[in-house]
């Protein structure tokens, strides 16, 4: 376990602000992600089971890892959490607009949260906590981009826009911008997420972690027992590799293009 002073990054309403992995084996998850992304781990209060926070750099908290202790063992997945000013209001709007509430709202020491699925089945969370800047950093090992792959990104944008009240927010803090067949979310002067067209019948949020060498990290993931889903390739946002961890959890790594903000 690391002993660095933790630097918590509060949630910004309406945009992704935290990511968390639900693993089958927490020790195995730490043994994979620790050396891969340079993470240290700090114990944290249990939520739905044993839970730790990953930290990088000067103790910046970048992700949560928990272990499923229920009898139902679903797939290992990364979940994206949006910031919100009111968990209860978001939960109500999820139901009103055709989504499904799975968990919560629940209260924890770090705030209140809920888990839901959008009408296309993509799972996401929302977290009511102290306001602040987005989670994303260029620090290696930190989440730097989130992407929803969904059959209809514009229908998804209507759903999330209504659930998180995108309209009417000051453009200097938040903007949803349409670019060809995707919707890009911009927060505090940075592009942080996109809603893009994906495979028919399948919708999911994917987390991209910042790295300095995409090829080296992809090779290390395989050495640690993971899988390379798609080999390193260039995108408008940087050089990306799509990976699975040692328990099948899907994520991506990216060496960002220097002139992207």
TrEMBL record:
Pfam assignment, any one: Glyoxalase_6
Q: What organism does this protein naturally occur in?
A: Streptomyces sannanensis
Q: Which Gene3D superfamilies match?
A: 2,3-Dihydroxybiphenyl 1,2-Dioxygenase, domain 1
Q: Give every VOC domain span.
A: 15-129, 142-256
- Specify the protein name: VOC family protein
Which SUPFAM superfamilies does the record match to this protein?
A: Glyoxalase/Bleomycin resistance protein/Dihydroxybiphenyl dioxygenase (SSF54593)
Q: Which domain of life is it from?
A: Bacteria
PANTHER family to which the protein is assigned, alphabetical: CONSERVED PROTEIN, GLYOXALASE-RELATED
């Amino acid at each position: 376990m690391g002993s660095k002073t933790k630097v918590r990054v509060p949630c910004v309403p309406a945009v992704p602000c935290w990511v968390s992995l639900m693993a089958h084996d927490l020790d195995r998850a730490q043994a994979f992600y620790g050396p891969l992304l340079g993470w240290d781990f700090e114990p944290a209060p249990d939520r739905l089971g044993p839970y730790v926070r990953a930290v990088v750099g000067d103790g910046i908290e970048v992700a949560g890892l928990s272990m499923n202790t229920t009898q139902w063992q679903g797939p290992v997945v990364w979940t994206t959490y949006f910031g919100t000013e009111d968990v209860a209001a978001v939960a109500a709007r999820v139901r009103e607009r055709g989504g499904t509430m799975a968990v919560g709202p629940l209260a924890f020491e770090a705030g209140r949260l809920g888990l839901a699925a959008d009408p296309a089945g993509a799972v996401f969370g929302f977290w009511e906590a102290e306001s602040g800047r987005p989670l994303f950093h260029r620090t290696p090992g930190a989440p730097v981009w989130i992407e929803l792959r969904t059959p209809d990104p514009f229908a998804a944008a209507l759903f999330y826009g209504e659930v998180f009240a995108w309209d009417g927010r000051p453009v200097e803090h938040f903007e949803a911008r349409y670019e060809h067949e995707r919707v890009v979310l911009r927060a505090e002067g940075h592009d942080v997420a996109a809603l893009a067209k994906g495979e028919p019948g399948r919708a999911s949020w994917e987390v991209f972690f910042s790295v300095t060498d995409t090829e080296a990290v992809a090779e290390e993931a395989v050495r640690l027992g993971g899988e390379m889903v798609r080999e390193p390739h260039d995108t408008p946002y940087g050089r990306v590799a799509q990976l699975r961890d040692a328990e099948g959890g899907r994520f991506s790594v990216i060496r960002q293009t220097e002139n992207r903000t």
